[in-house]
Design a protein that fits this description.
By secondary structure, the chain is mostly helical. It has one domain (16-257): Butyryl-CoA Dehydrogenase, subunit A, domain 3. The chain is built from 10 helices and 2 strands, in the order αββααααααααα. The chain has a two-stranded antiparallel ribbon. Helix 2 runs antiparallel to helix 3. The protein is globular, with a radius of gyration of 20 Å.
Length: 274
């Protein structure tokens, strides 16, 4: 009572205003997650290039190469996803199709980026050994920062339910999502299978809620795969589709198929000094 306040918006429009704000801050959270992953990879690859064990640099050892290459795939997929989403925000000001795409893709991206960042940063920390754990390293800061992305602007279940809500209330957003995948259709059989799985999951409304997280995950992975196939480096796209869509990997980083070009994938991801 008797607290001083000033009206800063239209009376009665508080909830719609905050929802629009959250729509934009979810994009921010997704970009932050991708940036944390990129920074963690930069730190890990730099350390591995200058730290030696058993008379060989870590970056030259096959097992470490698998880990770094796997992180490189994940980071590039994260970057291409958030950049495409940001483009949809820009173009959505004048394009209804892009606005519809952003409505659904924003929640999908936020869900997946927030889930992937903490484990990613942890793996990069492990590449450093004890040096990555002590506070003199930047890795503890990244590791502390990563989990909050999954809590800000809606935790996992909230976001998954928002995805289902968008599909039910705004079917144009689901059409826009599949329209984004369409140009990549036929380019990779594993991607085509993933697209079919998403269509199947989304077509069973009675089963959507208990499968909400699985749908969110498959939508994110399928969109990443389509973007990499269309716009990414062929080596990264192949590694992504083979490991993330076809399941040719283990449950942890560093379990990619051994015949992938690890050296080239790592070299592509390493920061360049002008």
């Amino acid at each position: 009572d008797r607290t001083w306040a000033r009206m800063v918006g239209v009376e009665g429009r508080g909830v719609p205003t905050i929802i629009e704000m959250v729509h934009h801050t979810r994009l921010d959270v997704s970009i932050c997650s991708a940036a944390l992953m990129r920074q963690a990879l930069a730190q890990a690859s730099h350390h591995a290039a200058h730290r030696s064990a058993f008379q060989r640099r870590l970056i030259d050892q096959p097992l470490m190469q698998n880990v770094l290459a796997d992180l490189a795939v994940e980071s590039e997929a994260a970057t291409v996803l958030v950049m495409r989403l940001a483009r949809a925000f820009d173009e959505g000001r004048r394009d209804e199709g892009q606005r519809a795409f952003a409505r659904l893709a924003n929640a999908v991206t936020k869900f997946w980026m927030s889930k992937r960042a903490p484990d990613f940063v942890f793996e990069a920390m492990e590449c450093h050994g004890g040096n990555g754990y002590v506070e003199e390293s930047i890795l503890p800061r990244l590791y502390r920062e990563a989990p909050v992305s999954s809590i800000w602007e809606g935790c996992g279940n909230v976001i998954a339910l928002d995805i289902l809500r968008a599909i039910r209330r705004d079917p144009d957003s689901l059409d826009a999502y599949f329209a984004e995948l369409a140009p990549a259709s036929g380019a990779d059989r594993r991607l085509d299978t993933a697209i079919g799985e998403v269509r199947d999951l989304a077509s069973r409304p009675a089963e959507l809620e208990p499968r909400g997280r699985r749908l969110a995950e498959r939508m994110a992975l399928t969109l990443q795969g389509a973007l990499l196939v269309r716009h990414g480096d062929p080596r990264i796209a192949e590694a992504f589709c083979r490991s993330r869509l076809d399941g040719d990997r283990g449950a942890t980083y560093g379990t990619l198929p051994a015949d992938l070009p690890f050296h080239d994938m790592i070299d592509r991801a390493r920061p360049r000094v002008p």
